[in-house]
Each structure stands twice: as C-alpha cells, then as structure tokens.
Amino acid sequence: MKQAEFFYNNPNAPKPNKPNLVGTTILIEYQDMLLLEHRMDSERWAIIGGSLKNDESFVECAIRETKEETSIDLDESMIGQGKLYDAPSIIISYPDGNIFRSITIAYRVKLTEEPKLVCSEESKELKFFTKEELKSVKIVETHIPILQDYLHK
Questions:
Q1: DSSP per position, 86-142
Q2: What's the whole-model pTM score?
Q3: Half-sphere exposure in the Cβ direction for 138 (13 Å, CA)
Q4: What is the DSSP letter of 65?
Q5: Which side of the chain, N or C, has fewer Cβ within a 10 Å radius?
C-alpha cells in the first residue's frame, strides 16, 4: 500500500496540485516529554494535529484534533499563543494523488496530570518522548521545523 509522503526543504518534492492545506498542530507536554503519534499512513511519528474545518477557529481545531487523536480534553484557557509555519517547501503527498502545501499554526500545552491516551484510527501508537529521544525519532518531514524550534527552546 502506498503511503503518505512528507517534504520539507526538498527540491525533489512534488508540486502541489490542490489548494493549500491549513491546520494546526499542538505540542502536548507532560513532565518535560512531548506526545507524538505513530501515523497509520506512514512509518513516521508526528505531532498531534490536523486540518482546519470551515466552521472553526485555529484553537478550536487544535482542541478537536487533540480529542479525536488522543482522547485528551483541552479548553481554550490551556492554550497559549500559536506560531505560524508557512514555508512554501512544506509539502504533503497523499496516496490518492492529492499534493498540498501545508500551512500550520503550532500551539503548546503543558499537562499537569498524566493523561489516559486512546489512539484514533489514524494512529498506531501514542507515546511521550524525552527531548533526548526526540533527537533520533523518525518524524514526518513537515514537522521538522516545529520540532527543531521545540528542541531549541
């Protein structure tokens, strides 16, 4: 089965054939570890997130995607200022032939209690990683700039 492909700063990336894909990611931390999902559509790990719906704000998207992908309930008061990642070289190619430029706002939240995690159909596994472990994790290329910023703060 063909898998999704992710590109960042790759001159060999395919050209988008669809309008921009706009969404959110959310860096969920617990005890100085970051939550990632092992995606079903690739052999890669990713930050929690997904596409923005027409009837929601970016923060609402982050809250919805977190609930859908992890079962963690968040509210707007837990989420701070987001950071925009809009490099034209952030490209996603899906098995159905759709190719998008991805534009993402990344948020960050620190949990004070250990969450009970439940995988969605989109995930093989959910796991918290230490900063040291994150340096060698096989993450989707589209999340490289977000992870780099996270590790250098």
A1: --TT-EEE-TTS-EEEEEEEEEEEEESS-------TTEEEEEEEEHHHHTT--B-GG
A2: 0.94
A3: 6
A4: H
A5: N
Query: Which CATH number covers residue 118?
Result: 3.90.79.10
* Per-block mean pLDDT, blocks of 10 residues, the chain (153 long): 90 97 98 96 93 97 97 94 97 96 97 94 94 96 97 88
C-alpha 124/C-alpha 42 separation (Å) is: 10
CB 138 within 8 A of CB 56: no
Q: How far apart are CA 134 and CA 153, in angstroms?
A: 14
Looking at the 3D structure of the chain, how many domains does it have?
1
